[in-house]
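Can't paste images in this forum, so I'm doing it all in text. The chain is below; anyone willing to post the predicted structure tokens underneath?
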Amino acid sequence: MSTPLVITVISADKSGLVESIAQVINRHGGNWLESRMARMAGQFAGILRVDIAAEKVEALRIDLDGLTSLGINVQVAVSGQADEPELEILHLTLLGNDRPGIVHEVSQVLARNGVNVEQLETECGPAPMSADVLFKARARLGIHPQTDLEALRQDLENLADDLMVELTQEE
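Text version of the structure:
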């Protein structure tokens, strides 16, 4: 019987990181199913999903813990396959002037409207033709069929006069 794992990784960025992790997973017969990985501010962070035989989980965990000697910090969690309600997918794009607390404000609005954040990417960068810093966010959200999209849009737009909000439902 196979056991689904979710593994998180963080380390100072250096070449060979992914290979070190893949080598350990392969040595234990694990199947690397999906991952999201990125380099940010000199650090490398990732999350991946692996299937492995139940009797090999502990040995894999021990070997992954051994990667700390290489400066690679790994956390392993057994992934439950909980019965979750079917959620519709909504894509959110935000663009506006950056300010401290904007992610907190946006996440409060999403939580208040019962929205599940499935994927989130944010960045700040210079605005064209000015010295202002723009906040940009892209998110994949899970929403219940009864979610009032117009109320959600209004809540987000009320965060700031300059915040542009785009919501699109996945077909």
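The two ends are 35 Å apart (CA to CA). The mean pLDDT is 93.
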